[in-house]
Predict the 3D structure of the following.
Amino acid sequence: MKKLVVLSGAGMSAESGISTFRDTGGLWEKYPIEDVATPDGFFKNPDLVLRFYNDRRKQLMSVKPNKGHELVAELEKDFDVTVITQNVDNLHERAGSKHIIHLHGELTKACSSRNPNDSRYIKELIPEEYEIKVGDKAGDGSQLRPYIVWFGEAVPRIETAVQFVKQADILVIIGTSLNVYPAAGLLNYAPDHAEIYLIDPHEVQVSSSKTIEVIRKGASEGMAELLARFRK
Ligand code: APR
């Protein structure tokens, strides 16, 4: 079976009703990145940051995977698929994808604020725990925090992601503006023989000399078109 890697971003979940970050009306227009997505922001106002992610977590319960997520899961019938996602939602999982690398963390998990990547203190939250408050403690006694990779923090899963991209026969990039590194640099690790597709309704600036087949459509329509091309 050919190895296919999907690299997804916020646009993958847009049709499920989750805002992207950098489109007009996107999340970073309403909430400054420095306030809600940096260690410094958390240090200055933990309550604001916890509320921001509590809201995202609550929203996750009210949304569903869209056709795009479902078609990504369907790729597993024909390919050996790895999904590398920048998204912190669990919509790929809920659509049935089996092998998912979350580069930027997961909304449904919480961790230690002293050492966010200490696996002993990373825990899956049950819905009753979705509201994290100031004073809630991780297993090491530090303030519990969302298991999210903030700006300025290391991206521990990147090395694993690179290994999968290096093995890819096909790379499918969906719904990411490719603004944020190291994720945006992943496509440069695709081997020369790999076919690269990019599905996005808007133009994406790609800093790479690789040949990329662009499908200028939303995630659902774009994935349907890609599957039709594969099955031709
Ligand atoms: N289908 C597919 N793509 C879409 C759709 C759609 N229906 N709607 C919008 N898009 C595209 C936009 O055109 C844009 O290229 O999704 C992309 C979203 O880009 P960003 O908002 O920048 O999101 P992303 O690239 O995932 O951001 C990367 O930045 O803020 C951090 O950690 C956060 O993981 C995030 C990272």
